[in-house]
């Protein structure tokens, strides 16, 4: 029994491979077998060509901060002790953007365009969250 009390994502049929990969500390994103588009978030059909032939590729885990905000007030009571924390949109080197947290960084040091790398937070025995940290902290 985990003592982790924060809300957790609920995997769907489409997103289960993403969560399974996160558990292995890998970032997996979809690529359309028909048109080659690289996609995130996980979905059932390609947003570019509507093909349902979607495969998975291992992303580099590298990207840059596309946008961010510093949460000074918790967005949920469970995050009360975490403020201030950074909620960001990271643009992966492969192209897609994903919403995440930036950790291991003073919020005051956040910058648009900051290089970041994926880091894996094993919050429960069954669930790992994908977050990012500054690339120069690796
Ligand atoms: Zn496609």
What does this structure look like?
It is built from one helix and eight strands. The longest helix has 8 residues, at 16-23. It starts with 15 loop residues before the first helix and ends with a strand. It has 138 residues and is mainly beta. Strand 1 and strand 2 (38-39) form a beta hairpin. The strands form two sheets. A five-stranded antiparallel β-sheet has the order 6-5-4-7-8. A three-stranded antiparallel β-sheet has the order 2-1-3. The model has no long low-confidence stretch (mean pLDDT 95). The protein folds into two domains: 10-59, no CATH class; 60-138, OB fold (Dihydrolipoamide Acetyltransferase, E2P) (Beta Barrel). Zinc ion (ZN) binds at residues 32, 34-35, 37, 46, 48-49, 51.
Write the layout of secondary structure elements.
Elements: H1 16-23, E1 28-32, E2 38-39, E3 54-58, E4 62-71, E5 85-92, E6 97-102, E7 115-122, E8 128-134
Antiparallel strand pairs: 1-2, 1-3, 4-5, 4-7, 5-6, 7-8
This protein binds zinc ion (ZN).
Summarize the structure.
The protein has one helix at residues 16-23, and strands at residues 28-32, 38-39, 54-58, 62-71, 85-92, 97-102, 115-122, 128-134. It is mainly β and 138 residues long.
């Amino acid at each position: 029994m985990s003592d982790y009390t924060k809300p957790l994502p609920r995997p769907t049929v489409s997103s289960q491979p993403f969560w399974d990969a996160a558990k292995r500390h890998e970032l997996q994103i979809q690529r359309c077998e028909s048109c080659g588009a690289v996609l995130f978030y996980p979905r059932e059909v390609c947003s570019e060509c509507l093909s349902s032939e979607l495969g998975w590729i291992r992303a580099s885990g590298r990207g840059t901060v596309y946008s961010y905000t510093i949460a000074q007030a918790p967005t949920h009571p469970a995050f009360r002790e975490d403020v201030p924390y950074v909620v960001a949109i990271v643009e992966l080197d492969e192209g897609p953007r994903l919403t995440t947290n930036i950790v291991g960084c003073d919020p005051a040091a956040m910058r648009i365009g900051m290089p970041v790398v994926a880091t894996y937070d094993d919050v429960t025995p069954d669930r790992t969250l994908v977050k990012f940290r500054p690339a120069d902290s690796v």
